[in-house]
Amino acid sequence: MTEYAQQPKTLYDKLWQSHIVEMQDNGNGLIYIDRHIIHEVTSPQAFEGLRLAGRAVVHPESMLAVPDHNVPTDADRANIINPKDSQLQLDTLAENCKEFGIDYIPMLDDRQGIVHIVGPEQGFTLPGMTIVCGDSHTSTHGAFGALAFGIGTSEVEHVMATQTLILKAQKNMRIDVEGPLGRGVTAKDVALAVIGHIGTAGGTGHVIEFTGSAIRDLSMEGRMTLCNMSIEAGARSGLIAPDQVTYDYVMGRPKSPKGAAFEQAVAYWKSLPSDAGAVYDKEIFLRAEDITPQVTWGTSPENVLPITGNVPNPDDAPSKERKIALQRALDYMGLTAGTRLQDVPIERVFIGSCTNGRIEDIRDVAAVVKGRRVQEDVVAWVVPGSGLVKFQAEEEGLDKILIEAGFDWRAPGCSMCLAMNADKLAPHERCASTSNRNFEGRQGPKGRTHLMSPVMAAAAALTGRLTDVREL
Amino acid sequence: MDKFVKISAIAAPLPMANIDTDMIIPQKHLRTIKRTGLGIHAFSNIRYHDDGSEREDFVLNQPAYRKAEILITGENFGCGSSREHAPWALKDFGIKCIIAPSFADIFYGNCFKNGLLPIIMPQKVIDLLLDDAARGANAIITVDLEAQQISGPDGGMISFEVDPYRRHCLLNGLDDIGLTLQKKATIQAYEAKKKLSQPWLY
Lengths: 472, 202
Description:
Number of strands of chain A: 19
Distance between the termini of chain B: 34 Å
Helix content of chain A: 25-40%
Order of helices and strands of chain B: EHHEHEHEHEEEHHH
Number of strands of chain B: 7
Structural class of chain B: alpha/beta
Strand order of the largest sheet of chain A: 5-4-3-6-7
Oligomer: heterodimer
Strand content of chain B: 15-25%
């Protein structure tokens, strides 16, 4: 045991080991969960399960509830009449939180927003924790050096009833990115380039720790963007070691520790980064200088290329199965092999989501579009990730810049990232989107999504086609 | 939870890689507070025309596969969203077992919580099973969780691996919340220690 304890550990090893309540004979760990975030879509059935079994929520104080997936994002949403089924989900969340004593931020509260933006903003997300939510993009919180991952509704119920989950240890994967990012290249481009490199199943069974100078140089917002998309690389969790950037972000937030407690916490957080000599099951090394602005062309996040590329030819696929899949993607996307990506016209622009709905993203977009106009016929939306992001942007006058350029400045929510409500593409509409998934139908039945960074989406809004922001 | 012990059933071939949970159950059907009744919406974007009529080219609409209980499919099945509505929809349709070269992690775990058995098999075995499945009702496939074996219509047999704890829960239809609650004292002891070492969390 002593020998085991002395081996160099990864950040993930430390997070895992410090949360083991009990190891079971079959190799599963009973793992303690520190924080649990819920929203209106994946929680109602869990509460129903508790009620049917006569069980309580064991630690309601460890939970935070925010409606986000299904809220309208119209500027005047206080007056919007929701479809009955959507409203029922919102009402059910409010009622469940009341019944079980859970901290609930309602839709019209200034702090409301996308769960993965609200958690960090409120200081609910801290390094060293385990954090779960019935949403796959819970990986976002790994940017703080917390073990954070999405779970299904049965596990939501399990955590509510027991404050634990039964889990198998994941393998360690390290993705190292060295050097400075080029002009017009952002954390989103790093995320997309990584997925292009390892594929959407490349991280399956692993936790990805991002290391290297390019990662350390990212702001907390950029780090969250990167960890957010770990799940698109197949990994339930992404991780970045906490450092001064992390502590500075966390300090002074409503739910973060204060004074001596904060100092005590920082001292602990400083013990979390991976030890020198820690062993990873898989390591990938990328150079930041090789990463250019990325854009997806197909129906999987791994269908990604530099903006300077051309739509690939299915005939070049390595296997018959791949060829069929590529052709299906091109047919769905309405694209022809060989077309220059920069010649692809777009009709819609969506800037927002838990991937890119933070203040830095909105600042980036405003900087690109300031004094310019959105191309005629392009419908361009900015959906801030939270009420506080919206408020901050308005304080800085960014909303005016965006509105003058022709953007629709909306209220916070998941909106057209998953298109659960009226915020969606019409069939065959093509969208430059800062969200995280380009699956068939993701932004609306038959809608066509091209994933990219906020500055790239801003550039596309100005020209009406996929555009290399570096050439604007 | 429903038990899964052994089934002998029709297998439907769906040889596509990266079938995501948005495809299994599109977002418009998530506006529910129930677990039930989602079978009719399973794969709805590729199963129905815009007018709601069935697409003949979708395998589960074909007469031979309407009663399929096994799905033979491609790699990275269930990628994307954590929505448990995906296994709920498959289960409600009548699917009890999914055999693929690989699964996305969250979906894979969600299956076991709902009495669904996901089985990982190498692509070459999948290719054989797809050939069997192509024969529709003429090719009944048996999946035996007790013996951890799949047997084909022509007598071929192959073993599969599954986590012993998950197998135990499936075979007995156990709700693992009940099992975990038996560890309440151990969990409370962990909490007490942690309150001392990391008081800022509380």
